[in-house]
Amino acid sequence: MRAVVQRVSHASVTVEGEVVGRITGPGLMALVGVTHTDTAAEAARLAKKLWTLRILEDERSCSDIGAPLLVVSQFTLYGDARKGRRPTWQAAAPGPVAEPLVDEVVKELRALGAEVATGVFGAQMSVALTNEGPFTVLLEV
Questions:
Q1: Active site residues
Q2: What is the pLDDT of residues 68-80, one digit of tens each?
Q3: How many domains does the chain have?
């Protein structure tokens, strides 16, 4: 699993003109990608990493201050554009594999005590955020 994680002051996801997920205050925006070999164990590891990652102000984590997270599925994190001009998506897991694993990340975060907002799997989403810092990291578990 891969995640692009951004420290944000606020973030939201809109689908067909309706806001479906929103966080405010210091928190993290996580775009999550799944590949074919990922399992629930990787989802749990990613959730724990997101919850305890010390990238908020003063080297604090979401778990330290109860900061919210916005988790959005992002199959394009496994895109490959090394050849030609059009990316391939062969390394990205198909929806029936990826959706339950993204849901598992969210479930594990909530079990850890996190406030989590989400996008809609497979939907055309508009994501808005204010990246603080700017601060962006790539996680891979």
A1: 74-76
A2: 999 999 999 999 9
A3: 1
